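Notebook p. 47: complex prediction with magnesium ion.
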Amino acid sequence: MGTEKRSYRVGVIKGDGIGPEIVSQAVRVLDRAAQAYGFSLEYVPMLMGGCSIDQYGIPLTQETIDKARSCDAVLMGSIGGDPKTSPWYQLEPSKRPEAGLLGIRKALGLFANLRFSVLYEDLKDACPLREDIAGEGIDFVIFRELTGGLYFGEKKTEVVDGEEKATDVLSYTESEIRRIAKKAFESAQLRRKKLTLVDKANVLESSRLWRKVVSQMAGNYPDVQVDYMYVDNAAMQLVRRPSQFDVVLTENMFGDILSDEASMVVGSIGMQPSASLAEGSFGLYEPSHGSAPDIAGKDAANPLATILSAACLLRYSLGETKAADAIERAVMGVLKQYRTKDLKADGDGTECVGTIRMGGLVADAIE
Ligand code: IPM
Ligand code: MG
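Predicted complex, structure tokens below:
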């Protein structure tokens, strides 16, 4: 009893563009962490996105869904290509790479997407905000609802009165709101105990339901301070005073937009990990950024968001907290001396390195 080595199955979707390069570095770091902390990882490769279209004609197969379900967690790079040049975008929208991503989120019930924004001490010079603003510290997480709202509502394009009319329906049920709000409240309890619901309740009926459900739930979490903020104001506050945020809870589309803004606030989208969680411990982990086809294969991509996503995988799906902490410490240590191009500022005294070197440096820094 208790002497067996802990072992886990991790699905790996390398994806398109820079995906394969950044995932290789994250796997390298995971292997080192597993070795150092006494567990083993079995990797299960699977296709999704453009590479799945090339192989099977569709971006997501049942085989990939089944394989993912047989794993404890999935690590993903990024999917998609350049819409102007890639043949994948000649296909109808439901057959394009992005449809695979939305499909896997839905199929695996990944309703809670956590995107973290942390301003590391050593990256202060990469932060585009004024020093007095950044100086207050930035450390918040966006809980973005991921399987509902506009992304999954009824869609149609029709001709009405002689012109085209396109419709996307935005709807939420109480239970869809409650299950992610519960995760957000619980996270706030473990953090600085502040939750901000971002919505557009002055205009949207669905936002009014979010407010109602969240304010009802607030009574169960008396230690958490709850604020309500309109999304336009939130977009402004994220650059005006990001230190005010701890846990931000919001619906799918608002979360998509605000999380890109939030990533830049701490220096680069190349640093923002994300965790997409289902009920229970299963999750899919991917950087928030895209597949950057323009720099693919050039050893220029920043692998840190993927490496930090791998740390999230260890923390949230496998419960390997110490190994997760070790990866995050290693990243912080390496940033003292080394930067990828996206993070490099003139005269910051650091050395500019490529994707592979950065992965190796982080792996070697794991203690
Ligand atoms: C993201 C991406 C996706 C989204 C796209 C690629 C469909 O922007 O993960 O934020 O909008 O969710
Ligand atoms: Mg996005």
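Notes: The two ends are 27 Å apart (CA to CA). The chain has a mean pLDDT of 96.
Next step: compare against the earlier run before touching the bench.
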